[in-house]
Amino acid sequence: MPPTLQETSPAAPSKVFIKTYGCQMNVYDSERMGEVLSERGYVTTQAVEEADLVILNTCHIREKAAEKVYSELGRLRRLKSRGGRDMKIAVAGCVAQAEGEEIVRRAPVVDLVFGPQTYHRLPDLLDRHGETGAAVIETELPVDEKFEILDAPATKPVRRGVAAFLTVQEGCDKFCTFCVVPYTRGAEFSRPADRILAEARKLVDAGVREITLLGQNVNAWHGDGLAGHDWTLGHLLNALSDIDGLERLRYTTSHPRDMDNELITAHGVNPKLMPYLHLPVQSGSDRILKAMNRKHTAAEYIELVGRIRDARPDIAMSSDFIVGFPGETDADFAATMDLVRQVTYAQAFSFKYSPRPGTPASTEASQVPEEVKTARLAELQALLGEQQASFNEACKGRVLDVLLEKPGRQEGQLIGRSPYLQSVFINAGDHAIGDTVKVAIETVGPNSLTGHMVEA
Ligand code: 5AD
Ligand code: SF4
Prior knowledge:
Blueprint lengths: L14 E6 L3 H15 L4 E2 L8 E6 L6 H19 L4 E5 H7 L1 H6 L5 E3 L7 H11 L3 E3 L4 H8 L12 E5 L1 E2 L10 H4 L4 E2 L2 H13 L4 E5 L7 E3 L5 E3 H8 L7 E5 L8 H9 L6 E3 L7 H6 L6 H14 L4 E8 L6 H14 L3 E6 L17 H24 L5 E9 L5 E5 L5 E5 L8 E9 L3 E6 L3
Parallel strand pairs: 1-2, 1-3, 3-4, 4-5, 5-6, 7-10, 10-13, 14-15, 15-16, 19-21
Antiparallel strand pairs: 8-9, 11-12, 17-18, 17-20, 18-19, 20-21
This protein binds 5'-deoxyadenosine and iron/sulfur cluster.
């Protein structure tokens, strides 16, 4: 059902403030919420005090995620009573999905609760709330309906920067025993290829030069391609790279089990596909990988990385790690350190295991003591930090293509990204945001590079 028009005073459009927590998919979802609401006459604001509607787009991955949302709701309650305005408060995203009615019970200030698969119904939810004044809770998982509605031609052109996200796949059927995603985002769903291609063209028309395809299990994406062929992500990336004006493609997050030959080959032959791959392994111990239900061994992962590097030798590898998973021994942790030494990462994210209610691992008896987790995390991060530093160091003296994305702090400075996703600072001369320039890398820090432009 298309959104209905709302009577708003032409002088003062309603304002929505959206606070986004967590992953890139939430960033994408928040942008789409803004678009859905703009059809309703809302404009987005960066100032929470002037908002008529505040949306917390929440994430459930990190520890105490729900508690952090409740303290934010406490601050909003005080703001609302101080300002004396009719400010509506909504909780969206994965915490909303997981907590449902509990949110309104603990925080009666909340007017709307909706999960990640129902924000396309926002106008309807606002109407329902307007009719009765009672809190509206919407935690179904109708993901196909969501994309059906979001894919309807927008009346307003999209506004994006140079690099944009595009969700192609949602949900997860893998059920890693530590993870809430299969419960909060629901079953795996792939958007149809023609819709993805249409959205990508729209983004490129709006000035986007780099698109990152998003999905909890992005490389599980599959669909009907052109001429009736079954497509996997490799085909989709190749079709996207035919779009004129689109210069760079990336995708995240991938599962090792879904890296098929098509996708690996694309890394070798598709020049628009950037040489960077986030491929979480979580642990290097086969015993722990099994307990996590990751469905592969350490050796299989290492062999897979070898095949990816055969296709694209300079690829920057990235990963997620969990230390202190229930039952993890010193030997298991040593196996993780070993795997890291064998693979060598350009960058990585690492976390202490923390139990998520409702997940199988959370009720394991053999939880690892906090101080052991802390020590292991420090050791792992030291090694990953060294590897990141040497990856960056190896870029010194090289000439890299840099896509200029935004202004830097200093006069004339622009910040761009290398093919390996490093931030690069340069004095940009005549070049503008959206240009790709050749940069000779001069200095290297832990998180960024600097250099000067050279002739192409
Ligand atoms: N404890 C610690 N880390 C977790 N992650 C997901 N669930 C948990 C948990 N219960 C990490 C995984 C995942 C990343 C997004 O967050 O490493 O890949
Ligand atoms: Fe969570 Fe595992 Fe699915 Fe990734 S693959 S979203 S870690 S269940």
